């Protein structure tokens, strides 16, 4: 079976890695594991086994523009996540129950990417 891991370009890789870890993502790999004296050039982040990667990009985003990519995670629970996001992210939407039976929180990361976490059960 093939696995697809999205790769997102960010302007400050170290700050982005720290931000994602502060809201509960785990860093499961970086180039520093093989090159401890090198500059950080990529990082893989995971939530309940779902992964994506970050890489440094100098491409600038226009103010107020929405990034042309986002991430959607199907997770066991989003309990506690909203509290962690309150002072770290712009929460775009919080849905206690969608018409298809999920609870969702949609937020924007520090790079302008939209992230959706959807779970069965209570927010």
Question: How would you describe this protein?
Answer:
The mean pLDDT is 88. The radius of gyration is 15 Å and the shape is globular. The strands form 2 sheets. It has a 4-stranded mixed sheet with strand order 1-4-3-2, covered by helices on one side. Strands 5-8-7-6 form a 4-stranded mixed sheet, with no helix packed on it. With 123 residues, the protein is mainly beta. It is built from 2 helices and 8 strands. Helices cover 12% and strands 37% of the residues. The termini are far apart.
Describe the largest sheet. Answer: 4 strands, mixed
Distance between the termini: 32 Å
> How would you sum up the global shape?
globular
Kindly state the mean pLDDT as a whole number? Answer: 88
Q: Which ranges are low-confidence, i.e. pLDDT below 50, for 5 or more consecutive residues? A: none
Q: Strand order, biggest sheet?
A: 1-4-3-2
Radius of gyration: 15 Å
Q: Count of helices?
A: 2
Assign the structural class, choosing from mainly alpha, mainly beta, alpha/beta, alpha+beta, or little secondary structure: mainly beta
Order of helices and strands: EHEEEEHEEE
Number of strands: 8
Strand content: 35-45%
List keywords for this structure.
123 residues, 12% helix, 37% strand
List the helices and strands and how they pair.
Blueprint: E1 7-10, H1 13-22, E2 26-30, E3 43-47, E4 50-56, E5 70-75, H2 81-85, E6 90-95, E7 103-108, E8 114-119
Parallel strand pairs: 1-4, 5-8
Antiparallel strand pairs: 2-3, 3-4, 6-7, 7-8
